[in-house]
Write a structure and sequence with these properties.
By secondary structure, the chain is mainly alpha-helical. About 70% of the residues lie in helices and about 0% in strands. The N and C termini lie far apart (about 60 Å).
């Protein structure tokens, strides 16, 4: 019998945290149930497998970024500089207040070579990040230069997220955001 009722979204939020901190393979259904205050069998009322939870976790984060960060690039009421400042601020707000780094970056390294569904979702997330940044950068640069810069900035951001987690310091991470903003000045 379940100890409490938990929504699908709450299960995803707990799962995301566990996957980020422990990795996908080191997180069990029992770990997820414990984090949610449920017995393991109760999770199966919402998800049929850990793989489904993993994929839905990736989609959950991707949707968050689409709605709250990538969408900034397509606002017509902001200048390119204002867009990039807000884009960086919202990205910083997420990663500076999110223990364990980037779920999609972490799982890209851990499982994408073995799980095509995960790989496809992760790839789409990063492509959409690059497209949004490139769209903003096109206010100042050519399309090809904008794409190159966007790819570079996403890679730099991901690398510094890893280093921020490793060294418990946000100093270098914050420099990337400032570099992105400076590119629009």
């Amino acid at each position: 019998m379940a100890r409490k009722k938990t929504s699908k979204e709450e299960i995803l939020q707990h799962s995301i945290k566990l996957f980020k901190l422990n990795g996908y393979y080191n997180t069990s259904m029992a770990n997820i149930a414990d984090a949610c205050g449920l017995i393991k069998g109760s999770i199966y009322h919402h998800f049929k497998s850990k793989e489904e939870i993993g994929l839905e976790s990736l989609k959950y984060i991707h949707k968050y970024f689409e709605e709250n960060i990538y969408s900034i690039a397509y606002r017509k009421n902001l200048s390119g500089l204002k867009k990039i400042e807000l884009f960086v601020k919202k990205t910083d707000d997420y990663f500076l207040h999110s223990e364990g780094g980037c779920l999609l970056g972490n799982l890209a390294l851990e499982v994408s070579s073995e799980n095509i569904l995960f790989k496809d979702e992760i790839r789409e997330y990063f492509l959409n990040w690059e497209k949004a940044l490139a769209h903003i950068l096109e206010a100042k640069y050519t399309q090809s230069t904008s794409i190159e810069l966007a790819q570079e900035y996403v890679a730099l951001t991901q690398g510094t997220i890893m280093m921020m987690t490793l060294y418990s310091s946000s100093e270098n991470y914050l420099k990337v955001g400032q570099k992105i903003i400076a590119s629009m000045r």
